[in-house]
Amino acid sequence: MQGFSDVYASSGDVSFWDIALAGGVLIHEKKNRDFVYQSYRSKNGESVPSVAGWHFYFHRGLMAIRGSVRGYSSYLSRFTHSEELVCVTLLANKEGVDFTDLARRIAAAFGDLLSTNYDDNRLFLLEGQFKADETVRRLKKALEKRSIPLFAEFDHQKNAEEVGLTLRPTTILVFGSPKVGTPLMALDQSLGLDLPLKIAVWEDEAGSTWVGFKRLKALIEEHELKDSVTIIKMEKLLEALAKEAAEI
Q1: Stretch(es) of the chain classified as CATH 3.30.310.70
Q2: What value, to the nearest 5°, has the Cα angle with vertex 200 and ends 199 and 206?
Q3: At 154, is the pLDDT very low, low, confident or very high (cuts 50, 70, 90)?
């Protein structure tokens, strides 16, 4: 009898299976491998950056597949460019674990361009499957669907252009609910420095799109908040919004 969250396969098992699939041992014909490992194209010609569970990104040759069910999380990323050729497989006996930044940091041992150069204990990061402007549009749609007010939008690239400077796409959306934030600020008004909530969307030097926000759990200790439940719920909301904006 198996217990809750038992490991049924190791990361080595998953990587071995992946190598067999990609290398032609299990899928012999190239046209069939291309079908599994390239973006899906719909009948109307639209390119969808996902197929057979794989997600495709703007970093050269990067593809990843992730999953989370009760008691388990998994992540397999493959850098297929000829100058990189790195595969990172991560498994955890806990649901809801996002391995994006950790996998990039591990891959960075093989090349600086593979790292995010951010601390995932301080920032929540998610690599996007869409260009920055489309990601912002999707994020606005996710806020509207939840009836969350959008207080401000800062297009730093546009602001830079207006003063004769250049900056890669960088947009900040500021949003929230006074009904939720006000009771917290009533306990400690310095929380106004961290509220309302913010999510950033930007494009890095390699052309990858990123969605990120400052982790909120640190506020609990920093401000000695007794109402930790609200902060945790707010962080879960930010995660959900980021994923809806960034991924298929």
Answers
A1: 128-246
A2: 150
A3: very high
